[in-house]
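hey so u asked for the seq, here:
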Amino acid sequence: MPKKVGRPTDNPKGKPIHVRLDKRNDEILKEYCEEYKVSRAEGIRRGIYKLESDLKK
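ran it, structure tokens below
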């Protein structure tokens, strides 16, 4: 079996997710991604990281 082709990474992203957004959430995500020049996927990841502070440890 040949090796996978592509860039090597230290953080593979192997967990796909499908999310349905309402119009306002989509606008917020779009504005954020344009302002910070990141992809939609990266914007969503950053939002998830911000949720970590809400977790009880």
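Residues 32 and 38 are 8 Å apart (CA to CA). The chain has a mean pLDDT of 89.
lmk if thats what u needed
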